[in-house]
């Protein structure tokens, strides 16, 4: 395998490296601002409203590109409820590139039994009615080096935070955004200390609203939702109970329950002594009030719900928490307002069926981070940021519709709804979504590295070590070519030099399986973006590789060649 790393770190990248200060805070040499700044200063390149799952992930991805940021979070200690348990293979691929996959998997193994199936039962003590997914990771190995897993937000968020802070982000708890204004040069955000009420202003080049379903940023930006609105006032009950005897000899990851009393689903901890039960309907679904279990959250009612879902009338149950939430299927009309961006639940709301919500938000952040970084470094034109909405909104809408389809068909067939989209394969949703193509998705088994698709996973050998092609994508552009693609290897540094500060890696791979997976001949080439998506490819070799690569990079960066 031939390879070449094109250009070393730019002055801006080197300047962005975090330095420890004696008080264990961070001191950042500012990008393009001409002075050093401390994380306590009133100016940062990027400000995040929301320091939860999506905010922390995006801050981590941004820091990978050498851009410091400040994330503010209203909660003092983050989420204490074990939400967002299901994480998809594409999300784990992103965590892999950030260097935290092993730590996340270890935490998952502490909390949950790996693998498992997704089934529908009449109760935990009853029988299986439908087996939706026989095994959580069936077929995954053909498409990814990573596997789906379950891990709670309280288990995952500290890992994200440690990594983000270690490489350049700052997180402040107990603060919230109360207002912002923007101008041609940046955003001035007013932040309030929740406890003291003290307000101060922070200046940033960009503001990212990752502040959830009731996003203050979205509200202040005047962005409305389109969609179906609320179709269930649901609850999630967190509890402890001796469930183990009911599930002996089984390995269920998610257990949907539907009987005359309620409809919802269980997710249980590894020892099956605790977990949560999400409930969408209670009682006679012919009555409107059936879709509002949130109307009654008295402890005795919650205990009764768990017992009826378990199928054991005298089951000892201790309630440890309850969360009200609204089942919706909505997408923001815009993902951007000037220098303000929306990500995660602030941009799209969907039922929990399929576990798509948190994953989709993380993918939003992964798409946005590299674009912000290249614009802040002056490598890309600010017009590149327009592609965040044009790429992520169609994917968000598609995913919302697929979650709604699963809600109607798995949880609420009583609605008799016919307005849902045909069920798409989970692989299409997780790793088959497309950017800039006529279709929004296709199965990864047929994409073969087409532009706009996620670059395929292929096992290759590098320096005597077996790695995935995905391991080559560490935040730079990458030119991949086959065993006859020497011209592309030589052209890459010359093309990169046309864009000062740009880093491009060039890698030649002699394995024919690689060429087949990427849809090119051994003389062809593929340009992969920093987020691991295919920007362009040449099926075969051409006479002027440097000119073509220069033209392609200019188009991606929205710059003149």
Question: What is the strand and helix layout of this fold?
Answer:
Blueprint: E1 2-6, H1 11-15, E2 19-20, E3 26-29, E4 36-38, E5 43-49, H2 53-64, E6 69-73, E7 86-87, H3 89-97, H4 101-111, E8 117-121, E9 128-133, E10 149-150, H5 153-166, E11 169-173, E12 175-182, E13 187-193, E14 199-209, H6 216-221, E15 225-240, E16 252-258, E17 262-268, E18 274-282, H7 299-310, E19 318-332, E20 336-337, E21 340-342, E22 348-349, H8 356-376, H9 386-411, H10 426-431, H11 444-447, E23 459-462, E24 465-468, E25 477-481, H12 486-496, E26 504-508, H13 512-517, E27 525-528, E28 534-538, H14 545-557
Helix pairs in contact: 2-5, 2-8, 8-9, 12-14
**Largest sheet features:** 8 strands, mixed
Fill in the CATH topology of the largest domain. Answer: FAD/NAD(P)-binding domain
Task: Please identify, by name, the CATH architecture of the largest domain.
Answer: 3-Layer(bba) Sandwich
Low-confidence stretches: 2-40
Structural class: alpha+beta
Helical content class: 25-40%
CATH superfamily of the largest domain: FAD/NAD(P)-binding domain
Estimated share of beta-strand residues: 25-35%
Shape: globular
Summed over residues and divided by their number, the pLDDT gives a mean of 90
Q: How large is the count of helical segments?
A: 14
Tally of extended strands?
28
Q: From the alpha-carbon coordinates, what is the Rg to the nearest angstrom?
A: 24 Å
| Gap between N and C termini | 29 Å
In CATH's first tier, which class of the largest domain applies?
A: Alpha Beta
The tally of structural domains comes to 3
